[in-house]
Specification:
Length: 434
């Protein structure tokens, strides 16, 4: 595959320039964009124009979900690093939601700067679904440009990215902008009812929990002729921490977000084990294939966290909590049950949370009270990052250590010929905690 067929040329920048561009986008569009939706107006009375930044499978799914989430919503702009990803995404969307997609050639953007062009193409609401390493940069630019945002989880891969997101949360709140995250369980009717009962004391004081995301392996794309190191890593973004944060961050963040939600806070410290037992070849970058983490919360509650991506092993995606008066078990889409003094189980049919998260954001915008979930998802992302840091180093990691870490995983340059060396696989007891 020739690079010219898949990537945009001439998109060369350093990380500093990349952030400067984000700041320029922030400053230039605020005045004209902040008021795109009146404070209050009848639902569906005005068109919401959506831009998609990141046209992979999750971005394509989110674009379909948003146009089905409320009346008078249309996808009008798209951007991706790779032209073939954008083209295949657009083809699928034109087939699945034909009348809700209007993305002419002049509103299709390719390259590292595609996000800037989408933000400048007259959109009101943006979906950020690129690899997570780019999320802080894109959030910064989108908030500065006055856009309401759906941001896929997680929202960072390192301490500097986390601190950026916490700053952006405050900026968005001050500007009255909505941000909903891809932590969809917070928009699931069954989860909402279950957690409400837990917060009302259905199992008494919560003492402990366990959260699992044990699944099989995921995709890998063999290297093609003509791919630079940057293109190879971006097409296999899951296997490189600067892009994904490792699977404890990219995937297990769902369960960790749920634990923080139930326990109404974030952990103070953790000790984690992990390793690379099955996915040992170079095709799998340098991430681990399993983690097990013991988190300690402020009230003394302990959380056992486990995630694994291995073939021919038992799968388990579930959560459980134990309190002084009972216990709760959650198996998404299958079981929501409380046992003990106040037994209960969810009897209804759960909603489609992938769609509902967009519905909730759009309704909040149209009501003039935009939701802002960025702080919650940022704290859940940091919960996952501290687990990775502990597993990689073999050290106990505190919340403050992870939050203030100066370890910056992002490259200094963003162009297709930029050097992106693969760090060695982390070795507990040898890898330094930074």
């Amino acid at each position: 595959m020739e690079k010219s067929a898949t990537v945009s040329e001439g998109n060369k920048s350093t990380r500093r320039e990349f952030m400067k561009k984000s700041a320029a986008v922030m400053g230039g569009a605020v005045a004209s964009q902040l008021g795109f939706v009146p404070a209050v107006y009848p639902a569906g009375s005005d068109l919401i124009r959506v831009g998609l930044i990141g046209c992979g499978g999750r971005g394509t799914g989110a674009a379909e979900d948003v146009v089905n989430a409320a009346p008078n919503v249309k996808l009008v702009s798209m951007g991706d690093a790779f032209k073939d990803r954008l083209d295949s995404s657009l083809e699928q969307l034109q087939k699945d939601v034909t009348d809700k997609v209007e993305v002419p050639e002049e509103r299709r953007f390719v390259g590292f700067d595609a996000y800037e062009k989408v933000l400048g193409s007259g959109v009101d609401y943006v979906i950020l679904a690129t690899p997570p390493g780019f999320r802080p940069m894109h959030l910064k630019a989108a908030v500065g440009a006055g856009k309401h945002i759906f941001a896929e989880k997680p929202v960072a891969v390192d301490g500097p990215g986390i601190r950026t997101c916490l700053e952006i949360y405050e900026q968005a709140k001050a500007k009255g902008l909505g941000i909903v995250a891809g932590t969809l369980y917070r928009h699931s009717a069954a989860h909402l009812e279950t957690v409400k009962r837990l917060h009302q004391g259905a199992i008494g004081d919560i003492l402990a929990g366990r959260v699992y995301f044990n699944t099989g392996p995921i995709w890998v794309h063999p290297r093609q002729t003509g791919w630079t190191d940057m293109e190879y890593q971006m097409r296999n973004w899951y296997y490189f921490t600067w892009l994904s944060g490792d699977h404890i961050v990219e995937q297990h963040v769902h369960n960790l977000d749920k634990a923080n939600w139930v326990l109404q806070g974030h952990p103070l410290r953790c000790v984690s084990l992990g390793g690379r037992q099955v996915r040992t070849g170079p095709d799998y970058g340098h991430i681990y294939d399993h983690f097990s983490t013991d988190y300690e919360y402020e009230n003394g509650a302990r959380l056992m966290s486990m995630c694994r991506q291995m073939e021919n092993c038992d799968s388990n995606v579930s959560d459980a909590f134990v309190g002084t008066q009972g216990a709760c078990q959650i198996i998404p889409s299958r079981k929501f049950a409380i046992t003990g003094k106040k037994p209960w189980s969810f009897k209804g049919e759960d909603n489609k949370a992938y769609v509902q998260e967009h519905t909730d954001l759009i309704e909040s915008i149209r009501a003039g009270k935009p939701l802002n979930e960025l702080k919650n998802v940022t704290e859940s992302t940091l919960t996952a990052i501290m687990g990775r840091m502990s597993a990689y180093t073999g050290k106990m990691v505190t919340w403050e250590q992870a939050l203030n870490s100066e370890e910056n995983l992002m490259p200094e340059r963003f162009d297709w010929d930029a050097p992106v060396p693969v760090p060695p696989v982390a070795m507990p007891g040898q890898t330094e905690l930074r």
